[in-house]
Amino acid sequence: MSSIEIVRCESNQLRFLAYNTFCEILLRDEDAQQGLWEGAIEIAEQIRRMLDAYDEMSELSALRKAETGQPVRISDELFKLLHTLLAACAASKGAFHIALGGLSKLWNFASDHPQCPDPQRISKLLQQSRLESVLLDETQKTVTFLQDGIQLDIGAAGKGYAAGRLAAYLRAAGVGSASVNLGGNLCLLGSGPRQGRWAVGVQQPWDRRGLTLGTLYLDAGQSVSTSGGYDRFFIQNGKVWHHLLDPRTGYPVENGPLGCTVVCSDALLGDVLSTTLFVGGEACLRSVAELLCPQSKVGYVRVEADGTVEISPELENVFCPAWES
Ligand code: AMP
Ligand code: MG
Description:
Elements: E1 5-9, E2 13-18, E3 21-27, H1 36-51, H2 59-62, E4 72-73, H3 76-91, H4 101-107, H5 119-127, E5 134-137, E6 142-145, H6 158-172, E7 178-182, E8 185-189, E9 198-203, E10 212-218, E11 223-228, E12 233-236, E13 239-242, E14 259-264, H7 267-280, H8 282-292, E15 299-303, E16 309-311, E17 319-321
Antiparallel strand pairs: 1-2, 2-3, 3-7, 4-6, 5-6, 7-8, 8-11, 9-10, 10-17, 11-14, 12-13, 14-15, 15-16
Helix pairs in contact: 1-6, 3-8, 6-7, 7-8
Magnesium ion binds at residues 156-157, 225, 227, 271, 274-275.
C-alpha cells in the first residue's frame, strides 16, 4: 500500500506528503506531459518502500531481522546507496554515521511526547552501533551485521537521494527546468527564473518557517540541503534535545551550529554533507566531499551557535544576506 499522499496535482505542480515531510515538484515554464506525475509518484513510492524506517516491510527495515553473521542479499540499488554512505561514514571518521538506528528509535524524536532516554540504555545501544560491524560484499551484493542489534538509519540521506532520483527522472522525461523540493532538500533542474539562476532562501534557524537569513542565487544542476536542530527537537529540563546525534556519546550534538546549508551538484551528497557539517565540522565535510565528489564545488552557509553566519568562499558571490537587501 502506498503511503504517499497526493496533496495537489496541477499541470505544472505536484505536491505530496512522503518521507514524513512535505514534497513539491514545480515545472518552471511547461506543463507536465501525460503520465509524468504518475511516474514521479511511482519513483517516490519505490524509494519509500526501500528506505522507510517507519514501515516494517521496507527493505531497510527488514534488515533488522538479519541474523548476526549471516549475509543478506539486498537490491542492487540499496547496495549502491549503502556503499556510498559507508564510504561517507569512513571519510567523516564516523561523524556521519548510518548505524545509529537503535539510538534514533530510542530518542524517538518523531513521537508526540519524546523524552530523554535512560543513560544506561543509551550507552548499551551505542555499543551496538559500531560501523565496523556493517560489512558489504560487492560481488554477492550482501550486507552482513557482525554484531547483535545493529540498525541502520539513513534518515540523513534519504530525502537527498530521492530528490536526485526524481530530478534525474524529470530530465530523462525531457523536462527542461524544474525544482524538486523534498522537505527542504532541493534539487534544481535546468535554468532558473532569475536571469537563468534560481533564488533559494536559507532558513533562519529557530525562527518562523520561511524567514530567511539570505538568498542563494544558484546555477542549473545545483542541490541545496539543510540540517538543523530546530528541525526536530523537544525541550526537557529547560534544555533543547535535538535529532542530530553525536555518535561518540549517543546524545544530541552539544554546542554545535544552529544550522548548516550545503550547496553541491549531487543531491544525495548534499544531504550527506549538511548532516556531516553539522555533526563533524568543516574538516569532515571536506574529506567526505573530496572522496565522493572530487570534481564538484561544495559550498556552505553555517550559522554558528552565537548566531554569526559563515559563508564558505565557494558561495561568497552567490549569497545575498537578508541584512543587505
Ligand atoms: P538531516 O536532516 O539530513 O541532517 O538528517 C537528520 C537525521 O539523520 C536524523 O533525524 C537521524 O535520523 C539521522 N542522524 C542523526 N544523527 C546522525 C549522524 N551523526 N549521522 C548520520 N545521521 C544521523
Ligand atoms: Mg542530511
